[in-house]
From TrEMBL, chain A:
Keywords: ATP-binding, Nucleotide-binding, Transport
PROSITE patterns assigned to the protein according to its UniProt record, in alphabetical order: ABC_TRANSPORTER_2
Domain ABC transporter: 7-239
InterPro entries in alphabetical order: AAA+_ATPase (IPR003593), ABC_transporter-like_ATP-bd (IPR003439), ABC_transporter_ATP-bind (IPR050166), P-loop_NTPase (IPR027417)
Protein name: ABC transporter ATP-binding protein
Domain of life: Bacteria
Amino acid sequence: MSRLPAVSLRGVGKTWASPGRSPVRALAGIDLDIAAGEFVVFLGPSGCGKSTLLYMIAGLQAASAGTLEADGIPITAPSAERGLIFQEAALFPWLTLVDNVAFGLSIAAVQPLKRREIAAEMLRRVGLGDMLDKKPDELSGGMRQRAACARALAMRPRVLMMDEPFAALDIQTRAKMQDFLLQIWRDSGASIILVTHSIDEAVALADRVVVFTARPGRVKTIVPVDLPRPRNPRDPRFHALRDHFQDLLADEVDRAFLEQEAG
Amino acid sequence: MTSANAATGPLPVPAGTAPTPPAGPSRLHAILRALGWGALSIGLFAGLWEALWAAGLLNPLLLPPPHLFLDDIAGTLKYFDRGNRVGSRGTGGVLPLLATIGWTTMRVTVGLALGFVGGVLVGALLHYVRLFRNLVLPTVLLLAPISPVAWLPVAIFVFGIGDVPAIFLVFITLFFAIALTTSAQIAAVPENYLNVARIMGARGRQTFLRVVLPAILPGLFMTLRLNLFAAWMVVLIAEAVGVGSGLGQVVSLARSTFNARLTFFTMAIIGVLGFTFDWALRQVQNRMLWWIAPGGQGR
């Protein structure tokens, strides 16, 4: 393909430096291209820096080394073109759902009627079309995450990033949310980068899975998942992939665990 | 239906997260019940007082029961003065009573408003401007625990006799508490609220007005309500000493003339006023902070 990658990382590293303590290398030497419309999952042990990488792509944190580009333009600041969804929905409790979704549009000075229209459409798309004037507190966790998706999608992002978005949800809701996410992905045409430590989630969703090593996080390997969608967790190929990832991660999880034990 | 819609159906709002406001008739019922209990509570208190008097256990000159101190209201009202004048003897009637209440209420309201706004400004500076914090915070922490009453002489030295020292004392009562609350609350605003604002392109002032301020407002209101009663205490003291008019002056007059009837009448007025103020503040809170108001609906 001649098109520019949606996200391009070259030699990206992150070192946490705090005065009086030895610097901690969180990430090192990350090279990665993410194509437009691709669904990529970051998989790795806790503390491998995969969330940090997400925050750097979002422009919320600066890299200590390397270059990050979105559509060929260096990433220097956050942008609504690269939406980010957190583990908790982070909806503003003082705004109704529709006002939450319209928040970015109002910052962008879109006319009130127009932005309500767009926000209502986005909420309808995530299945919350009859909840426009509810408060966030009145929703379940899954609904709040879908509203957070609608808020990001209202800005028509090129890349939608998610930092363990379903980790706080119960198992049944998680499965539903995965279906929902695939649909959002198809509708929006955005690239999706999903951070998780759930192997099942990675195999169920990804075009490619980027497996990280324990700290300092490096790309251990990149595994394409070419199972047709919708994917059936009982499919033997699903099982095989899951076992493969389990083996890949086992060493890293052991290392991360030993490191944590050592303090 | 699509899978997204399928996911909508079986996800009810968890019980307890969304208390539904009672509908019309049952809400009226609830109000009537609260009023009933209130009347019963006050009735019992007054009844006990009256019973002790009837039994001859209370000296009516020192502790006159309600029927005695409410006996000659016209006479009692003579002690209230219409104008905001120092040490004048009143003309009597309801208007002077209302004027006296009005002056005291004005001092409390203006003092609270100035303290709130000033406290938020200084609190925000304490949080955002490091040099300001380093220079000012230690002094604020030193001054904050000083009782507002101890400021009374200072207020009179600086502002003389009049409205200003009373307003100043109310201001002091609230100012330090709001400044420290503001600073602490801004620090506690969830990081991801700020991240969302940044991603959506909000700049500094937009972020403060549209994200930080609404996020800290509930905490500020709590501080305001906690300090409301202190503000009422302080204004009475200031009026008794440094203003020479208002309800505090009447209480002071009652004390120095050994007028128990006037004392208890004024106390009753002050009690009703304080209650009304707190109630009004709760109403404002329910409107402004609709998202945390018990049973408040999403607009």
